[in-house]
Specification:
The mean pLDDT is 86. The protein has helices at residues 4-12, 21-29, 34-41, 51-67, 73-85; strands at 18-20, 45-47. It is mostly helical and 96 residues long. The chain has a single domain (4-85), classed as 3-Layer(aba) Sandwich (Rossmann fold), CATH 3.40.50.1010. It contains five helices and two strands; from the N terminus they run αβααβαα.
């Protein structure tokens, strides 16, 4: 988590950074120091999944299937969360 102190400082000074509950789940599945991850993520506003997100995600899924470009379910759900809230999605995930 090198360099995250600066990232956390930037995030702490803004109200515009969010993380999905799905992202938290994915990150915590890895071999990580849970307390450090949770401390880092505490700087973010947390977005939960709702019905509208699920509907939007199902539509994204169908479009991707039609194009032969299917990505992971969580990635589709996180995309739907960002779309429904008018947020820009920042990621290092190659699927995006």
């Amino acid at each position: 988590m090198k360099g995250n102190a600066k990232v956390k400082e930037i995030i702490s000074n803004s109200e515009d950074f969010y993380v999905s509950t799905l992202t938290i789940f994915e990150v915590l599945l890895g071999e990580v120091e849970e307390n450090k991850i949770l401390d880092f993520l505490s700087a973010f506003n947390v977005i939960g999944l709702n019905k509208k997100d699920s509907i939007t995600a199902s539509r994204i899924y169908k479009r991707l299937i039609d194009k032969g470009k299917l990505i992971g379910y969580f990635d589709i759900l996180i995309s739907a969360q960002a779309i429904n809230r008018g947020l820009t999605l920042e990621t290092k995930d190659a699927d995006f």
